Amino acid sequence: MVIRTLAFLAVIVSILIEVESDDGLNLECRASGIFVSITNKFLLDNGVDVRFSNQIHFRNNANCSSVKTDAGYDLLIPAPFDTCGTKLEHDTGNYIYTNEIVIYPIDDVSDGGEIVERGLNRIPIQCSYDDSYVVSSDFGLKPYVRTIYFETAKGNISVDMNLYQRKDYHPKSKLGARPMVLVSFPLYVSVNMDNIFGDDKITTTLEQCYATDKASFKDMDSLLHYLVQGRCISPDDTTVEIYQNGVTNEARFKFDMFRWRMSKTEFVYLHCEVKVCDSNKESCTGDGPQCNGPNGDSSRKRRNVGFDVEESGITSIGPIAVGRLEGDGEAKVDTELVGVKRDQEFLAIYIYLAVGIVLLLFIIILTCTLVVKRSRQLKSQQREDEPKQANVGRSNSETSSDSFNQNQLPICF
User: Fold this and answer.
1) What band does 52 get if pLDDT is binned at 50, 70 and 90?
2) Which DSSP helix (H) or strand (E) runs through 397?
3) What is the residue-wise DSSP string for 279-313?
4) Mean of pLDDT values over 100-121
5) Cβ contact 166:188 at 8 Å
6) CA–CA distances in Å: residue 169 to residues 208, 236, 255, 306
7) Other Cβ atoms closer than 10 A to 279
8) Dihedral sign for Cα atoms in the order 169, 175, 177, 180
9) Do the beta carbons of residue 165 and residue 175 sit within 8 Å?
10) Which terminus of the chain is more solvent-facing, meaning fewer CB atoms within 10 Å of its CB: N or C?
11) Segment 160-182, tens digit of pLDDT
């Protein structure tokens, strides 16, 4: 009896292990990259026929397609996870990277391998990493902050730059000197003027802001990346959002942290050309919604780096280190294709709806049949009652006439 029980438990354990290992969909969240493998068995079990590697790719990024292997298909998002449309969120103590894999059926792929979007299956993936990261290279640079001063007849005006982690620019989210920031993590920039005049018409206007690998804003012979140009969002960076510029004594904008391409440099300095502007006398904002302007014209032209020292100055901050994750993360993936599940839900809804419509039609037809039948019965009964009522009427009439004749008085002439 004991032997049979042990044998039975061994079979159960082997089945459980097989189910766990044979899902056919594996997600690994490593510090070096996010790795996804999809087996042929998984595709076969879900009824998806895949013959081309470009049938499987990350959503809205067809160039990030899978690679065919003997067992199935593999996909990769290399560190620092800023490609293939990967999104980054930061909650309490974790960095969460999310993306979505799409699988197109073979019917949606033409003979030339081009995808025609008619239907797809989706696999959401998520990797969660601890809020702990390091800088890849030696980071012995001293913090550098350049505050500018404007001399006026009424006194000196100072303008400095600060970095924040939150969109609301809460003081507790202010970054300290020499911060380390992950790639794709949003940085919120504030350029603030110490307005000694107390006049709300004196505003801070960002003419342009850019990043370099040098502390001096004049040294622009090496790496250069524009963020704000001509008071507007630079076409060089689609992650920039300008919240206010030339409206109050503080200008604010946001950009996502990046790393230099084709370079081992892993830190950046920010430089902004700032103008103290009097909105009573001149326009202090750009034109268009992307410039914080009122005209709605988003067109803009690239401007060269040239400064009018009499009207503007440069404020700088840095270095900002490009951090990398330390250690592996926690993986989360749904082993059921979202598209298949969705189609099944829709099919169930359609079935219930069809049954409901049929029942409703049956009730309507049955009700109409009963109404017609009842109406016919009433009409038939009325036709049967009409002769009886007529005979009764004639009988009553004759009886009344005889009674009248008998009681009639004689007529005298």
Assistant:
1) confident
2) helix 338-406
3) TTTS--S-SSGGGT-SS---------S---TTTEE
4) 63
5) yes
6) 21, 25, 14, 30
7) 17
8) negative
9) yes
10) C
11) 899 998 899 999 889 887 788 88
Contact 337, 182 (CB under 8 A): no
Amino acid making up residue 251:
A
Find, among 270, 318, 271, 313, the residue nearest to 156 by Cα: 313
**Of 127-141, 167-181, 322-336, 350-364, the least confident:** 127-141
CB count within 10 Å of CB 255 equals: 23
Of 153, 146, 123, 111, give the one whose Cα is nearest residue 48. Answer: 123
Q: For the sheet containing 186-193, what is the strand order?
A: 148-152, 155-164, 186-193, 250-256, 241-244
Do β-strands 87-91 and 180-182 pair in parallel, antiparallel, or remain unpaired?
Answer: unpaired
Q: Is 3 helix (H, G, I), strand (E, B) or coil?
A: helix
Residue with tokens 């790496």: 223
114 SS3 class: coil
DSSP assignment letter at 178: S
The pair phi, psi for residue 265, each rounded to 5°, is: -65, 130
Question: Do 64 and 73 meet the contact criterion of CB atoms below 8 Å apart?
Answer: no
Contact assessment for residue 300 and residue 253, using Cβ atoms and an 8 Å cutoff: no
Give kind and range of the element (H or E) at residue 354.
helix 338-406
Q: List C-alpha distances in Å: 250 to 72, 247, 293.
A: 55, 8, 15
Question: Helices (H), strands (E): how many in the chain?
Answer: 3, 23
User: pLDDT band at residue 255, thresholds of 50, 70 and 90?
Assistant: very high
Note the pLDDT tens digit of each residue in 190-229: 999 887 767 788 889 999 999 998 888 887 777 899 999 9
**Which two structure tokens, joined as six digits, stand for 102?**
């799409």
Query: E strands, 213-249, where?
Result: 224-229, 232-233, 241-244
CA distance 156 to 143: 25
